[in-house]
Specification:
Length: 138
Protein backbone atom coordinates (compact mmCIF):
# COMPACT_ATOMS: atom_id res chain seq x y z
CA UNK A 1 0.00 0.00 0.00
CA UNK A 2 1.38 3.40 -0.97
CA UNK A 3 2.01 6.15 1.52
CA UNK A 4 -0.39 9.07 1.20
CA UNK A 5 2.57 11.50 0.97
CA UNK A 6 5.20 11.17 -1.67
CA UNK A 7 8.71 12.49 -1.16
CA UNK A 8 7.85 15.50 -3.31
CA UNK A 9 4.82 16.34 -1.15
CA UNK A 10 6.97 16.28 1.98
CA UNK A 11 9.62 18.40 0.26
CA UNK A 12 6.97 20.91 -0.86
CA UNK A 13 5.53 21.19 2.66
CA UNK A 14 9.01 21.65 4.14
CA UNK A 15 10.03 24.29 1.60
CA UNK A 16 6.72 26.10 2.00
CA UNK A 17 7.20 26.20 5.80
CA UNK A 18 10.77 27.49 5.41
CA UNK A 19 9.63 30.16 2.97
CA UNK A 20 6.88 31.26 5.32
CA UNK A 21 9.24 31.50 8.27
CA UNK A 22 11.90 33.29 6.24
CA UNK A 23 9.71 35.98 4.75
CA UNK A 24 7.84 36.62 8.00
CA UNK A 25 11.01 36.84 10.08
CA UNK A 26 12.91 38.84 7.50
CA UNK A 27 10.12 41.40 7.25
CA UNK A 28 9.66 41.47 11.03
CA UNK A 29 13.36 42.11 11.72
CA UNK A 30 13.55 44.71 8.93
CA UNK A 31 10.54 46.62 10.26
CA UNK A 32 11.83 46.37 13.83
CA UNK A 33 15.06 48.04 12.66
CA UNK A 34 13.02 50.64 10.79
CA UNK A 35 14.80 50.10 7.48
CA UNK A 36 13.35 49.90 3.99
CA UNK A 37 13.75 47.07 1.53
CA UNK A 38 16.21 49.28 -0.37
CA UNK A 39 18.33 49.82 2.74
CA UNK A 40 18.31 46.11 3.53
CA UNK A 41 19.27 45.30 -0.05
CA UNK A 42 22.18 47.74 0.05
CA UNK A 43 23.48 46.38 3.37
CA UNK A 44 23.10 42.76 2.22
CA UNK A 45 24.61 43.36 -1.23
CA UNK A 46 21.53 42.17 -3.12
CA UNK A 47 18.94 43.84 -5.32
CA UNK A 48 15.82 45.55 -3.98
CA UNK A 49 13.72 43.38 -6.27
CA UNK A 50 15.21 40.24 -4.76
CA UNK A 51 14.40 41.44 -1.23
CA UNK A 52 10.80 42.03 -2.32
CA UNK A 53 10.57 38.61 -3.97
CA UNK A 54 11.88 36.89 -0.83
CA UNK A 55 9.53 38.85 1.44
CA UNK A 56 6.61 37.82 -0.77
CA UNK A 57 7.68 34.18 -0.61
CA UNK A 58 8.41 33.93 -4.31
CA UNK A 59 12.15 33.31 -4.04
CA UNK A 60 14.43 31.64 -1.53
CA UNK A 61 17.98 32.99 -1.15
CA UNK A 62 21.10 30.91 -1.56
CA UNK A 63 23.01 30.20 1.68
CA UNK A 64 25.43 33.02 0.84
CA UNK A 65 22.63 35.52 0.28
CA UNK A 66 20.83 34.32 3.41
CA UNK A 67 24.01 35.00 5.41
CA UNK A 68 24.22 38.50 3.89
CA UNK A 69 20.58 39.24 4.72
CA UNK A 70 21.02 37.97 8.27
CA UNK A 71 24.17 40.03 8.78
CA UNK A 72 22.41 43.13 7.46
CA UNK A 73 19.57 42.49 9.95
CA UNK A 74 21.99 41.88 12.81
CA UNK A 75 20.95 38.28 13.46
CA UNK A 76 22.37 34.85 12.78
CA UNK A 77 21.00 33.21 9.65
CA UNK A 78 19.28 30.33 11.44
CA UNK A 79 17.11 32.85 13.35
CA UNK A 80 15.43 33.77 10.07
CA UNK A 81 14.22 30.17 9.72
CA UNK A 82 12.90 29.77 13.27
CA UNK A 83 9.27 29.83 14.33
CA UNK A 84 8.14 31.58 17.52
CA UNK A 85 8.11 28.33 19.47
CA UNK A 86 11.68 27.59 18.32
CA UNK A 87 12.87 31.01 19.48
CA UNK A 88 11.29 30.56 22.91
CA UNK A 89 12.79 27.07 23.24
CA UNK A 90 16.24 28.24 22.13
CA UNK A 91 16.29 31.31 24.36
CA UNK A 92 14.70 29.75 27.43
CA UNK A 93 11.69 30.88 29.43
CA UNK A 94 13.51 33.84 31.03
CA UNK A 95 14.15 35.33 27.59
CA UNK A 96 10.44 35.94 27.11
CA UNK A 97 10.36 38.10 30.24
CA UNK A 98 13.59 39.84 29.25
CA UNK A 99 12.17 40.63 25.82
CA UNK A 100 8.95 41.90 27.39
CA UNK A 101 10.96 44.21 29.68
CA UNK A 102 12.92 45.59 26.72
CA UNK A 103 9.68 46.18 24.83
CA UNK A 104 8.13 47.84 27.86
CA UNK A 105 11.12 50.20 28.18
CA UNK A 106 11.07 51.04 24.47
CA UNK A 107 7.33 51.74 24.48
CA UNK A 108 7.66 53.76 27.68
CA UNK A 109 10.28 55.99 26.01
CA UNK A 110 8.11 56.42 22.92
CA UNK A 111 5.06 57.28 25.04
CA UNK A 112 7.10 59.81 27.06
CA UNK A 113 8.30 61.44 23.83
CA UNK A 114 4.73 61.58 22.49
CA UNK A 115 3.46 63.18 25.71
CA UNK A 116 6.21 65.82 25.49
CA UNK A 117 5.18 66.60 21.92
CA UNK A 118 1.49 67.05 22.74
CA UNK A 119 1.99 68.70 26.15
CA UNK A 120 0.14 72.04 26.16
CA UNK A 121 3.06 73.62 28.04
CA UNK A 122 5.32 72.96 25.03
CA UNK A 123 3.09 74.72 22.50
CA UNK A 124 4.49 77.75 20.68
CA UNK A 125 3.11 81.11 21.73
CA UNK A 126 -0.15 82.09 20.06
CA UNK A 127 -0.08 84.19 16.91
CA UNK A 128 -2.15 87.38 16.83
CA UNK A 129 -3.05 89.65 13.95
CA UNK A 130 -3.50 93.40 14.13
CA UNK A 131 -4.50 95.40 11.05
CA UNK A 132 -3.55 92.43 8.87
CA UNK A 133 -0.05 92.19 10.37
CA UNK A 134 1.10 89.13 12.23
CA UNK A 135 2.13 89.67 15.85
CA UNK A 136 3.65 87.03 18.10
CA UNK A 137 3.41 86.56 21.85
CA UNK A 138 0.83 89.16 22.78
Amino acid sequence: MANCFSRMDFYHVLVTELHRLLFRNMKRYRKFLGITQAELAEKAGISVGFVGEVEMGRKFPSPEKLEGIAKALGVRAFRLLMGPEDVTDAMGPDAVYETAEKLKARLSNEIDQFVKEVDPKNKPPPVYFHNGKRLRGR
